[in-house]
Amino acid sequence: MSEFIKYRRTQIAEMRPWEFGDDMSEISISKPDQENGSPREGDMIARNPKNHADKWLVAAQYFADNFEPIEMPNE
User: What is the pLDDT of residues 1-52, one digit of tens each?
Assistant: First the structure.
């Protein structure tokens, strides 16, 4: 088995907060996140910027540890 290597992300992520009542039928949730009680407050819904139908849940703690808002020009 090959070794894990650390990579830095080079793209901007598109996300929005998860809200109670969201239809989760087309949003992927990992088994570990489901086992930890997601979806729940603080979780985020991410989408592929090139395919908006491709969506997944990002757990609140992972989001807090790895993402920060950015300011885009002309916004």
Answer: 999 998 888 888 899 999 999 999 999 999 999 999 999 999 999 999 999 9
Residues 45 and 28 sit within 8 Å (Cβ to Cβ): no
Instruction: Return the amino acid letter for 73.
Output: P
3-state secondary structure of 32: helix
Tokens of 13: 């992520």
Q: How far apart are CA 65 and CA 75, in angstroms?
A: 25
pTM recorded for the entire structure: 0.83
Rounded-to-integer distance, Cα 52 and Cα 16, Å: 13
